[in-house]
Write a structure and sequence with these properties.
- It is a single chain.
- This protein has helices spanning about 55-70, 75-85, 90-110, 115, 135-145, 175-185, 200-215, 230-235, 250-255, 270, 275-285, 300-310, 320-325, and strands spanning about 1-20, 20-35, 40-45, 130, 150-155, 190-195, 215-220, 240-245, 265, 290-295, 315, 330, 335, 340, 350.
- By secondary structure, it is α/β, with parallel strands linked by helices.
- It folds into two domains: about 1-110, Enolase-like, N-terminal domain (Enolase-like, domain 1, 2-Layer Sandwich); about 115-350, Alpha-Beta Barrel (TIM Barrel), CATH 3.20.20.120.
- The strands form four sheets. The chain has an eight-stranded parallel sheet.
Length: about 350
């Protein structure tokens, strides 16, 4: 096999702020995996600063292991994932990009879409939410009004110390409940809330019942990732489902989340790709946990991998391409709020000319 790489750094339509900080563009590593007979599969992994992963670090790992990555006798993606997982165990983001590319290559080699290979019907996927990042209330309302959508995810945690790194907004000027009240005044659509680990237990206990009364259907990662005792209390008291995000990174985390969360948000980039994500979904079902498929602001390449798995999820957060200004590939569309693969073999995407 042969591996090629490219870098994408697309700007967001709006500065994207969560409780951990603000970014104005999303750098990503894109890979092309060329197999026998010139068939090429494509993959992606975004760089995420709060996981200490940069494009540069992924590229360094790729360069250092390129010979071994390329020498594998590829037959199927699951065997390749296990090889990569042991070859570069400290680089799950890079493994994710290569795993997505391997599945794309596999599907193309067989002339079938990934959804078809897995016996899934993308039209049965849940509707994706559209994320409204933290901002002034006026700006958040404007984003919502300007982007009509069936479901919204609202980033909260406005009082967190790292939530804003610009002088125009300070945490003291915003209140999470005021934000949701204002947004609810402009839409009857279901709302989801993501605190990104910004609340204390007492804050969550106070806020969540009010959020429930405002029609919020779930809350992601209300407490710090290591506050398991707090989550146990909150789990028992919450009137709406609580989903683990930062507390559910790798496969072993799924078991740990049972009894502390009602569901888990599985993100391909965090866990290392499609291969482990499928196992995590199956294990979550065994434990009675609900499952969300989560975006990390991927382009259409990474998002198409999520969309291929769509019917396996209860909730979809597949809005990366909607938040970015531009794209690196064509083939993914949104129909009635659902992210729909093209149906072409593999991921069903075609990179823009000259990308690699």
């Amino acid at each position: 096999m042969r591996v090629l790489s490219a870098i994408s750094d697309l700007p967001f339509h709006y500065p994207f702020t969560i409780s951990k900080g603000t970014k104005t563009s999303q750098p990503s590593l894109l890979v092309a995996l060329e197999g026998p007979r010139g068939v090429v599969g494509y993959g992606e992994a975004p760089a995420i600063s709060y996981y200490n992963v940069s494009v540069e670090s992924m590229l360094a790992d790729l360069v250092s292991k390129r010979v071994l990555i390329e020498k594998f006798a590829f037959t199927d993606p699951e065997r390749y994932w296990h090889y990569l997982h042991h070859l570069i165990p400290s680089a799950p983001f890079l493994v994710c990009a290569l795993d997505i590319a391997a599945w794309d290559l596999y599907g193309k080699s067989r002339g079938r879409s990934l959804s078809s290979l897995w016996g899934l019907d993308p039209s049965l996927s849940p509707v994706s939410d559209y994320t409204i990042g933290l901002d002034s209330i006026e700006n958040m309302v404007s984003k919502l009004v300007d982007n009509p959508w069936p479901v919204y995810k609202i980033k909260l945690g406005a009082a967190a110390p790292g939530a804003f790194n610009g002088p125009e907004i300070t945490p003291g000027h915003l209140d999470d409940l005021d934000i949701v009240r204002a947004l609810r005044g402009h839409t009857s659509a279901p709302l989801r809330v993501d605190a990104n680990a910004a609340w204390t237990l007492s804050e969550a206990l106070d806020k969540i019942p009010v959020l429930a009364s405002l029609g919020v259907e779930l809350v992601e990662q209300p407490l710090a990732t290591d506050d398991w005792e707090g989550m146990k209390q909150l789990f028992a008291a919450s009137p709406i489902p609580l989903f683990a995000d930062e507390s559910c990174v790798r496969e072993s985390d799924v078991d740990r989340c049972a009894g502390y969360f009602h569901g888990v948000n599985i993100k391909l980039t965090k866990c290392g790709g499609i291969t482990p994500a499928r196992r995590m979904i199956a294990r979550a079902r065994e434990l009675g946990l609900r499952v969300m498929g989560g975006s990390m602001n991927e382009t259409s390449i990474g998002t198409s991998a999520l969309a291929a798995l769509g019917p396996l999820f209860d909730y979809a957060d597949f809005d990366g391409p909607l938040l970015l200004n531009g794209d690196v590939a064509t083939g993914l569309t949104y129909v009635g709020g659902r992210a729909m693969p093209s149906g072409e073999p593999g991921l069903g995407v075609r990179p823009v000319q000259g990308l690699f």
